[in-house]
Amino acid sequence: MSNILMIIAPERFRDEELFVTKSELEKAGHTITISSIRKDVCLGSRGGFAEATLALSEVQPKSYDAVVVVGGGGAKLYFENQQVAEIVKEMNQGQKIIAAICLAPVILANAGILNGRKATVAGTEAKTIENKGAIYTGPGVEVDGNIVTANGPKSSFVFGQKINELLNQI
User: Fold this and answer.
1) Cα dist from 15 to 73, 107, 128, 159, whole Å
2) Binning pLDDT at 50, 70 and 90, where does residue 107 land?
3) In contact, 3 and 138? CB cutoff 8 Å
4) Is residue 19 classed as helix, strand or coil in its secondary structure?
5) Using an 8 Å Cβ cutoff, are 34 and 51 in contact?
């Protein structure tokens, strides 16, 4: 099956967006690696935690078939982060699957990969991604080519399913 990189904030990532999505991907047989600013235990906004076994500086994008950027308030840390931007840009150039949920699509927009693409995001950031050239489609989950975006925790299950559907095509 596929190797998937999940990027989370060191604190205040949204629990459901990590755990529900990760569960859907693992049920399909995919291998998940969690990355953050540093290797450490990362704290979710709802009391959960996950261990980042890979620092962003150690990520080799060619090793992964997909990257999933998890949202939550902590994702704002990555809005202008060059390491995350380079990872998603390199993976997008390789036509790998790029996925982001909640606030995280702003990261994709800031990296320049949503220009002219349909996407969704937490409603508070709709204008942000539109100003970067994305075509905001409203709540739910949006798939445009190799990019999957979702607007928040309630979309986590379908978000995971849509990523799996794309992975099944490669």
Assistant:
1) 11, 19, 24, 14
2) very high
3) no
4) helix
5) yes
**Measured CA angle at 8 (ends 22, 153), to 5 deg:** 60
| Pairing verdict, β 135-136 and 66-69 | unpaired
Q: How confident is the model at residue 19 (pLDDT cuts 50, 70, 90)?
A: very high
pTM of the model: 0.98
Residue type at position 122 = A
**Per-domain residue ranges for the chain?**
3-168
Residue-wise pLDDT for 83-102, tens only, equals 999 999 999 999 999 999 99
Do residues 85 and 114 lie in contact, with contact meaning Cβ atoms separated by under 8 Å? no
State the virtual CA torsion across 135, 140, 143, 144 in degrees, nearest 10. Answer: 0
The string of pLDDT tens digits covering residues 34-57 is 999 999 999 999 999 999 999 999
CATH T-level topology, domain 3-168: Rossmann fold (3.40.50)
CA dist 1 and 93 (Å) reads: 21
| Residue 31 burial (CB count, 10 A) | 13
Residue 93 identity (one-letter amino acid): Q
